[in-house]
Each structure stands twice: as C-alpha cells, then as structure tokens.
Design a protein that fits this description.
Elements: H1 6-27, H2 53-62, E1 67-71, H3 77-82, H4 86-100, E2 102-109, E3 115-121, E4 125-129, E5 136-145, E6 161-167, E7 171-176, E8 179-185, E9 193-197, H5 213-237, E10 241-244, H6 250-256, H7 262-267, E11 283-286, H8 293-310, H9 327-333, H10 335-364, E12 377-380, H11 391-404, H12 411-418
Antiparallel strand pairs: 1-12, 2-3, 2-9, 4-5, 5-6, 6-7, 7-8, 10-11
Helix pairs in contact: 5-8
C-alpha cells in the first residue's frame, strides 16, 4: 500500500489544529469575545464576562451517552474495554469527539501483551480515513509535547512535539524529538489508531463539532450583552443628577474653597446649596433611572437561539420556565435532544466496535476479517431512564405484548428499551 507519509500528516494536523483548539477554549470558557464599537470607556475593557453555554451543550449530550458494552460479542471485546477503565475511557472519547468533531483511540500492547486503549483529542491526532470501514489507512498522533507547562501543569497543545507515533497497517513507528526511535510490528492488519467521529458526512468525513460557529457567535453576543449590562449597572446603581441655577453660587464656592466633588455628590445622603445674594437657590434633579429589562430580554433572546441550535431548552441554560408536570412532558421537551443522542449513538457505536475489533486482532496476533464482527452491536443505556411512576404502565404493556408474542420480550430486549 502506498502511504502519504508522516510529513504530510504533520501538515494536515497543523492546518486543522487551531479549529479544534478554538472549540476547547469555548468549552473551557477561556475564549474572550471581541468588543464592538469604541464608545465603551477603556477602564471597562478588563471586565470580560464569560458564559458556560458551550460546555452545557457538550455535557448535556455527553451525559446521555452511556456506553455499556457489546451484544453478539464473539471476540470478547467487552473484556478488553473493562480492563481499560471502560467508564472513564468511553466518557473521555465521547466528550472529546463532541468538542472537536472527532477523537482517536490509540491501541498499543501492554507489558503483558494485552491491548491498552488511550484516548487522544482531535488537536493531537489525524489520519487518512477509509470511507468504507471508517478506519484509518495510516495515522499520526502526538503522544507527548515539550515544556513549558501551562497553569494546569500540562504542556500546551501548541508546544513542539516530543514523542510522536506514525501508524500503518504493517507497523507503528515512534519518533522522539523528530527522530525514529522505535518500530513495533502490527499484526492487526489495520492502523492502531481508530477515529471516534460525531456526525460524519461525505463532505466532512471527520464529522462536525457540537460547538458550531453559530454557537460561538451566539455566545459571544450574549457575553457582550452581559458586558453592557455590567456597565449599565453602574448608572443604574447611581443615577445621574443635575443642578440648575448654580451660576449665582459659582463665585461663592470658588471663594470659600468648596469644590464640587463628583464622587461625593454621587454617594452623599445630604447636599447643601446656599442661596445667592438675590435669594435665588439651585434646583436639584435626577434623570430617569435606567432600566435593566432590555438587557435581560436580549440575553434571553440569545439563549433561545442557542437552545434551538443545540436541541436544549431554556431551563438547561438557566432560564426558569414553566415546569413540566410529568416525566412524559419532560421527555417531550427534550425530543430534539433525544434524536441527536440516538444519531450520536449510531456513529460512536461504530467507533467503539472498530476499536474493540482492532484491539482483539492485536491481542490474538491475528488479522481477522472485519466482516467477522458484523453481528456485534454497541449497547447503550437508555437516553431517558424509566421513572418509578412509569413502571406500572410499563409492566402492563410488557404483559400484553408477551401474551400476544410469547417469545418477543427477552431480558436483553427489555434492558435495551428500559435499562432495567
């Protein structure tokens, strides 16, 4: 097989890395919005409100996707996953794929020869995808980066690679400081780097991020609204005042050395103004207090648009609405999220099956034909768990179906439908 080579894959990763890192900055709430206009005083520029809507968009979906194993598992793939901290590994692979559109599973042989599974984010791995099998014909991953460390104690994703891996169907090549250090034979017959892809398409085979451009733009606009509301709150707390008729008192104030201090006038509970020689006295007034309602309504407008973009509800984003009365009403409100989660289960299920299949090939030292796992099926916990109030109706339905079709409901089917 003719390969494009590690240099090509390095350039491919560099060309796409910033897009993924931008999504991670949005998820980690470290991306600051761009200010619009120049009418805001410079002293307010240091104040940058942040919102966690992108994190909610990812976590609300990721928490619904709970991988439980395989049915029709003739290659004991469940055993491989259970020996690699399945709960932590699966959750990390799913969350990284939702953020960066894809993540990768790095498969290697442990000291005892048993497969090890490691999740690598999309900013540190790439490859050439076979559109038929959704496996990589060759892959590249950065396993370790050089110092300096970030504030969290880990090397930044843009630091120079220290340890790299280049994957082919025949071998895995380990590079240290840019030089080939080790070569490991690959008996699996496939590259030991497996993609986990969210929403793949023919035009974008490596999928789409859950954090879309619309999500980023809407969150920036909402953050700017919060920024403006914080500035407006200064005027809301201390409304602007005015004084009429000070012309006759100007000389008196100047001669007596009493200067008008703006801060003192703002917070003083009592202000004294004397009459002039003609008996005229100043008139003190206050401008109408600014309302914060327009900012609240604008923020809610952006929240509604963001909720529609991500299949969430306003309650998920922190805006209280009328509480659904029943469990069925709650599920109906999240119908779009359920459809999104089911689509994610289908694509991620293929990724987990591919990873388990190649790990089984590595474990047995045998390049099995991929059609051998055609009957294997990824099993997931139900997107919405069964509420206690639904158990009675569920039992009646199962009983009636069992009478009409005695052999239909097996323990496996019941678990798949209800999680029980």
């Amino acid at each position: 097989m003719e390969y494009k080579g590690i240099e090509y894959l390095r350039r491919q990763l560099a060309a796409r890395q910033q897009r993924v890192l931008t999504r991670y900055r949005c998820y980690d709430m470290k991306r600051t919005f761009d200010a619009v206009g120049s009418i805001i005083p410079a002293q307010f520029n240091a104040m940058k409100p942040v919102l966690g809507w992108c994190e909610l968009a990812v976590d609300k979906l990721a928490d619904r996707l709970v991988f439980e194993g395989f049915s029709g598992d003739d290659f004991y793939m469940d055993e491989i996953f259970s020996m690699n901290n399945q709960d932590i590994f699966a959750d990390a692979a799913i969350k990284d794929a939702l953020i960066g559109s894809c993540s990768f599973v790095y498969i290697s042989a442990g000291e005892n020869g048993y497969p090890r599974l490691q999740c690598i984010d999309g900013a540190n791995a790439t490859g050439i995808l076979d559109p038929i099998t959704n496996l990589l014909t060759e892959g590249y991953a950065v396993l370790e980066r050089e110092e300096p460390l970030t504030a969290e104690g880990v090397p930044p994703s843009t630091a120079n690679p220290k340890t790299e891996a280049y994957f082919t169907a025949e071998a895995t090549y380990i590079y240290r400081s840019g030089k080939l250090a080790d070569t490991y034979d690959n008996p699996a017959g496939y590259a030991l780097l497996v993609p986990m892809i969210y929403k793949p398409s023919a035009k974008r085979p490596f999928g789409h991020s859950r954090i879309t451009r619309a999500c980023i733009a809407l969150m920036d606009s909402a953050a700017r609204t919060l920024w403006r509301s914080e500035i407006a709150a200064e005027f809301y707390s201390f409304p602007q005042k005015y004084v009429l008729g000070l012309q006759g008192n100007a000389k008196m104030n100047k001669d007596s050395g009493e200067a008008f201090d703006r801060w003192g006038l703002t917070i003083a509970s009592f202000i004294r103004f004397d009459s002039d020689k003609n008996g005229n006295h100043p008139v003190v007034g206050q401008f109408q207090q600014q309302s914060m309602l327009p900012y609240t309504e604008q923020l809610k407008m952006f929240a509604s648009a963001f909720a529609g973009e991500t299949s969430l509800t306003l309650d998920d984003l922190g805006f209280s609405t009328a509480n659904p009365s029943t469990a069925e009403a709650i599920k109906a409100a999240h119908e779009n999220l359920r459809l999104t989660a089911e689509a994610a289960q289908r694509s991620f299920g293929t990724g987990f099956k591919n990873a388990g299949f190649i790990a089984a090939c590595l474990r047995d030292g045998q390049a099995y034909d991929r059609y051998a796992v055609r009957n294997a099926r990824a099993e997931w916990r139900p997107i919405f768990s069964v509420e206690p109030s639904e158990l009675g109706a569920l039992g009646d339905a199962v009983g009636k179906l069992s009478q009409a079709f005695p052999d239909y409901f097996t323990e496996e089917k019941l678990h798949r439908l209800t999680g029980l």
